[in-house]
Amino acid sequence: MKTLKGPAIFLAQFLSDTAPFNSLDSIAGWVASLGFKGVQIPTWDKRVFDLEQAANSTEYCQQFLATLAKHGLVPTELSTHLQGQLVAVHPAYDEMFDGFAPESVRGNPTARQAWAVEQMMLAAKASKNLGLKAHATFSGALLWPYLYPWPQRPAGLVDAGFAELAKRWKPILDAFDAVGVDVCYEIHPGEDLHDGATFERFLKAVDNHPRCNILFDPSHFVLQQLDYLAFIDRYHDRIKMFHVKDAEFNPTAQQGVYGGYESWVDRAGRFRSLGDGQVDFKQIFSKFAAYNYEGWAVLEWECCLKHPEVGAAEGAPFIAQHIIKVTERAFDDFASGGTDHAANRRILGLK
Fold first, then answer.
1. CA neighbours within 13 Å on the CB side: how many for 130?
2. Positive or negative CA dihedral for 124, 129, 135, 140?
3. Kind of pairing, strands 269-272 and 296-299?
4. Where are the alpha helices (DSSP H) in the chain?
């Protein structure tokens, strides 16, 4: 068995124009002071990372790694959540998702998608240059407006949507395969890959591509009322990334999974800081230990109540306390009589 790595932290929710959150060096010093050992890097924020330079300059990558190493940190993965979202956008969301793209391609869905695909290709090269083995992203969505089957979906609509999604992602998956990096789709509401069933549809559509893998975040399973422990049992071979994020689900007479258009504070399903929600992390970490999960445990802080700096400070020791250093021998080895094949045959009554 193998001990997973951590604690690490996803930087996206903490970046701002105020020190120490406004540069790689300063935020690295901050997270290191809290006890984190790794950082997951958002590739769309040039305050901490320049994707184009990382894809084309090994010198830039060495400088980036050196800045982190100065604080005792390593990069765990790169993230293209925003760019991956734009690989597939239903027209109903065009205006809302335009903000994820540079101004030069806003209002032009075709140009925006081409930009997103190119960003993914750059991310493959950058991951290779940094020596990374996994990459975090979103799948995007063509079918999300039709999630609930009313009005009745036309026959073949879902198949057509997944066929198109696979067509867009297959060249990207091939590019990541060429550099030996897994693409880990965060299973997330708002994406066409939002549960096990949709992941399996997509996996089949991309011909069981070896680089098509999963970013597991139990908070999204709580909000959907899915069995996140059974999910690990079923898909552990494809889970290559882990966001440690808590959540709670408290349905009322007024609302349930859909949330009634309420704010995050007033929804039945809410994201919470680690330890404040309902996720059974002891069982999750136990299952990852049993299944030899080799990746990182990465805090993604999202909470509708607690201050982010408090959530981060509490998150590092929370993760550290849950990481199971796996045993190298059986607990009852002290009673072992050793291996004697002749004795074993005699015990079984065999000659």
1. 35
2. negative
3. unpaired
4. 24-34, 51-56, 58-69, 81-85, 94-97, 109-129, 157-178, 196-205, 218-224, 228-235, 281-290, 308-322, 341-347
* pLDDT for the residue 340: 84
Closest CA to 244 of 318, 133, 305: 318
Task: Write phi, then psi, for 197 (nearest 5 degrees).
Answer: -60, -45
Gap between the Cα atoms of 119 and 121, Å rounded: 5
Alpha carbons within 13 A on the beta-carbon side of 64: 27
If one compares 187 and 1, the residue with the highest pLDDT of the two is 187
Q: Which residues pair with 9 in a beta bridge?
A: 39, 299
Q: Which of 43, 49, 38, 42 is nearest to 76 (CA)?
A: 38
List the structure tokens of 12: 């996206």
Give me the amino acid identity at 172. I
The residue that leads in pLDDT, 2 or 127, is: 127
The predicted-structure confidence for 34-70, as pLDDT tens digits, reads as follows 999 999 999 999 999 999 999 999 999 999 999 999 9
Peptide bond into 75 cis (omega under 30): no
| Global model pTM greater than 0.90 | yes
What angle (nearest 5°) sits at the alpha carbon of residue 254, between those of residues 249 and 258? 55
Which letter does DSSP use for residue 349 in this model? T
